[in-house]
Design goal:
- This protein has 157 residues and is mainly alpha-helical.
- 61% of the residues lie in helices and 0% in strands.
- The protein has 7 helices and no strands.
- It is globular, with a radius of gyration of 16 Å.
């Protein structure tokens, strides 16, 4: 996926909403493709972060996943970015769960939860792109989503 074809953070949020609303049968039928899509959407979120910061997103992999390498790259010199480390790992976890048994009885649920984790990453990074001083916790992006101006203590960031 190139920068020209990559989904924006807003488009990723819309795609997540669509996945959550998709009937179980369709999720099960396309489980392996959706697993790959979840990873790609996570990568697109972190690529948007890097490009906004003037960095070239890495093509390296960490522990077999580019998503984890992109996170490591983003966390260098930005300790607050570590707040989304476990979110990235959870996206990988859901990807692996889906691929382990794409016909599992609960695979539709696993896909939906994985999609919600991707949305969580998109909200966190999207919030940090709007107000780089947001704190270390993902819930700090809530005022941004609600159109409020967050109180940012730049002395502690």
């Amino acid at each position: 996926m190139t920068a020209e074809t990559r989904l924006s953070i807003e488009e990723i949020e819309a795609r997540v909403d669509a996945l959550i609303a998709t009937p179980n049968e369709a999720l099960v039928r396309d489980a392996t493709e959706i697993a790959a899509e979840l990873l790609t959407m996570g990568e697109a979120v972190l690529e948007a972060w890097h490009e906004a910061k003037g960095n070239t997103p890495t093509s390296d992999k960490h522990e077999g996943f580019r998503l984890l390498a992109l996170h490591r790259q983003g966390a260098r010199g930005n300790p607050s970015f570590n707040a989304c480390r476990e979110t990235c790992r959870e996206i990988v976890y859901h990807h692996n769960l889906i691929l382990h048994d794409p016909a599992a009885a609960d695979v539709a649920h696993t896909i939906r939860v994985g999609a919600m984790v991707v949305r969580h990453l998109a909200l966190f990074v999207g919030g940090k792109l709007q107000a780089d001083g947001l704190g270390e916790f993902c819930c700090s992006s809530r005022p941004i989503r609600q159109g409020e101006t967050p109180d940012i203590d730049t002395e502690t960031v």
